[in-house]
Amino acid sequence: MQDLESTLNDLSSSLETLSTLNEGEPPLELDTESSEALVTWKSSTLKILERLENVLNREAAALSLAERARVISLAAVFIGQDNFTNEACRAVAQGKSQSRSTTRPTEVLQGCLGSIDTVDRAVATRVLNDYIKPLFQASVHPGVHLDTGRMKHNAISVQSMYDEQPWKVKGSGSWNILVWVLWSINENDIEILWPLIIPPLLTLLDDYKSNYKIRGVEVTNALLKKAPSSLLRRTGVDELLFKSLRGALQNLTSDSSPELLCTAMPCYLTLVDLVLPNDDLNRYAKLTELITDVIIPGWLYASSRVDVMVASVSALSLVVQALGSGSIRFLKAIIPQLTENLTPKEFPPVQKTRELQIASAKCMLLVMVNARPRIPYWRVRILDSILRCWVDIGESKPGDIEIDHGELRECLMSIFRELLTTSGNLLRKLKGVAVKDSGAHHVGREMTDLPEG
């Protein structure tokens, strides 16, 4: 086993080197493209991972509990979509047959972690207790009891855990270790391991930087695949997660905000489905909070950032689907914003403008289907926006040449067909209106060729 110990020591030393590359600052915040040191580090670390894989292919069956735990604590660091890893490192660490998802595949894995056939309670406890817990000891989340993983009442502000954060420098990839353990453990062990999982998860999720919040969402997704709803409710962790995810969704000031919106919203909705499947009143309250406290207030900021608005509208689509007809009460806020998004703008680049129009058109269609009785009131505003958008598609713009408009055209036509379904008789009044813009001729022709009766 000397080869194994030597290789693990080399990998551990390599991770210590990683912690120094950003001059004492977190390695995750290094600029991947401009950091030659990081590129060189990944290349040398890949060679160590390959050595470890070869050693494990020979000696995996004889691994002790401590050795299995150490392999996981070092190799699982590289399974994420982080700047200090890449596709080659991921393939060697976790196996080429496993994709980055919230569930572990059933097929036998290749790679370093594939040598760990099962992760029983003893191994998982060793990993979490020896490698994860010490990293987060100085950044304890104030909202949870460390010994039980239960919610604290009258907890102090999370600001207190920002004073010291050694896990950001010394614990790069610790979130990936948490994800791997959650993928791999038996569901029956989750309650025993609860106090070792929940505190670091919440520390990640409530960090003040969005790139760590994203990692916290990934860990939360893995948790929700294993944790029973009764355990989440009994420990009060469901409410802690709701609060933390809502805070993540309100974080709109960083470059990572669009990604955070797109990852946190499905996670929040999964939590709603898990802990409130039959509680209509509380379920409705949790869903409407997303619109009143997250989506609508966020539009004030997102109006100056097209990428954030695209993510916000995509997130709104998920909420509208979950609310169904319950989304009717928000039409006065939703439809004006969506029609504004569809109306042509001079936002550079054109690609982002089209992405916003497509996302808004898809969301508009969902809103219309779920609120059919109220759509006739909004018919003129909706029709005006889709006609303007249609005309705009036909006009050539710099940077517009490479963009495929087929998806947007189909979305606009679907909205128009839905308008015919809900407001056909009212739209017939427009038969005498000439469609002057050639770009709108196709839509206008369908509108004015409606059958009588």
Automatic annotation (TrEMBL):
A single GO CC term for this protein reads: nucleus
PANTHER family registered for this protein in UniProt: TELO2-INTERACTING PROTEIN 2
SUPFAM superfamilies for the chain:
ARM repeat
Q: Which domain of life is it from?
A: Eukaryota
Quote the Pfam families the UniProt record gives. Tti2
Q: Which family does it belong to?
A: Belongs to the TTI2 family.
- Coiled coil stretches, renumbered: none
Q: Which InterPro entries does the UniProt record give?
A: ARM-like, ARM-type_fold, Tti2
Q: What's the protein called, per UniProt? A: Tti2 family
